[in-house]
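Question (not urgent): is this output format expected?
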Amino acid sequence: MKKIRLTEDSRNNILEQLLKRSPASYGEYESRVAQIVSDVRREKDQALFRYTEQLDGVRLTQETIRVTQEETEEAYQAVDSSLLEVIRKSLANIKAYHEKQKRYSWFDSTPEGTILGQKVTPLSVAGIYAPGGKAAYPSSVLMNVVPARVAGVPKIIMATPPGKDGKVTPATLVAAKEAGVDEVYKMGGAQAIAAMAFGTESVPKTDKITGPGNIYVALAKKEVYGHVGIDSIAGPSEILVLADETANPRYVAADLLSQAEHDEMASAILVTDSQELADKVEEEIQGFLKVLSRSEIIKKSLDTYGFILVADSMDEAIEAANAVASEHLEIVTRDPFQVMTRIQNAGAIFLGDYSSEPLGDYYAGPNHVLPTNGTARFFSPLSVDDFVKKSSIVYYSREALAKAQKDIVAFAKAEHLTAHANSISVRFEDRD
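Got this back:
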C-alpha cells in the first residue's frame, strides 16, 4: 500500500490510475462479447445453449433451463437454517428502506383549464443477474430484487450460471425465492444478458437488467443498453476512508481490507490529515495480512490500487474524497455528521466508528449496488426509481390553449417549424 503526501499532482495521478479499472477500458474483450450477444439475438435458444455448454460445461434444453420447484425445495434443505434466518432479517431491513423510496402519480389542475401531471408506472419485466459458483452472493440477489418488487414490477426473472452438475448455488436460489423472484434460469455470462435483453424461445424479454457480474457480463450489459435498460456498467469494488486523529487505526485498517479482498483490482484508499494515524493504519494492515484467508488477493489489490494519502488539512482531505467519488465512503472523524454535509460525491456514506462498510453490504437496508469508477459524480445507488418509468400528463382546454396560442406559434416559427405552428393555429381557424 503506497503512502503518499496528498498534492494536486498525486491526486490526479491516482484518479487516472483508478479509471484504468473501468470496464470501458477492456477493449480486447468487446469483440468477443459482441459476437456472443449477436449470436443469441439471432439464433436465440440455439446459441444460448451452445455457449452455455461451451463456456460453463453444462448442456441445457428448453425443459431444463428453468429452475423447478423441486430444485428450489432441495436448495432450502441445503441451506443452513441460521443463514436462512439472517437472509430473512436482512430482507426485512432492505424492504423497509426501499418502501420509503416509492413514488406516486400526481396531477395539478388550474382554474384556467389545464391539468399537468406525472404518471408513474412499474416496468413490466425485470431481469436480475446473479453470479454463481464461488462468486455467489445471496446479498446481491436481495439488493436487486427487493426494489423491483417494491416498485410493483409484476414479473421478475433471474439468470444465474449453473455449476458443472447443472444445479444453481443453493443460497442464491433461496435468496431469490425469499425476495420474490418469479422464474430462475440456469444461464450465465454474456449469453444470459443477451437472452434477457432480446428474449429467446425459453427466456422472456425483459425491460431492464440489473445485477453484478464479471467483465463479460459488464460488457454485455453495455452492448445491449438501448434495447433494454441497465443499472450501470459496474467496475471493481472500492472504498475510501476519510479519517482524522480520533479514528481507531485498527478499525480503519480492517475496513480498508474488507474491500481489497474482493479481487485484485479492488481499490482501498485512506485519506487523513494525521501522519500518526497513517503510520498506525499501515502497521495494522501488515498484522491483518498475516491472518486473513484472502491475503494474496488483498496484497495484489493494495500493491496496485491501495493508497494512504496524508493531507495538510481536513479541507484538502475532503476535496480529495469528492474528486475520487468512491463507491463506499467511510467518515471516521471527530464530527462525521459535519464532514458529511461537505461530501458531494459518494455512492454510500458510512458515519462513525461502528458503521463499517459490510453493514451496508449485508444488513442495514440501503442498496449496495452502487456507482463505481468515479461515476458517483452523476449516478446514484440502485433504487425503486430504477424499476419505474414516468410519463408526463398534459391537458389543456380550448380556452386555456387559446391564451397560449400566440406564444406557441411564435416559438415554433422562430425555429422554422411551420407544421408545429399550424398544429396549434388550425384549432382556431374559426376565429381568424
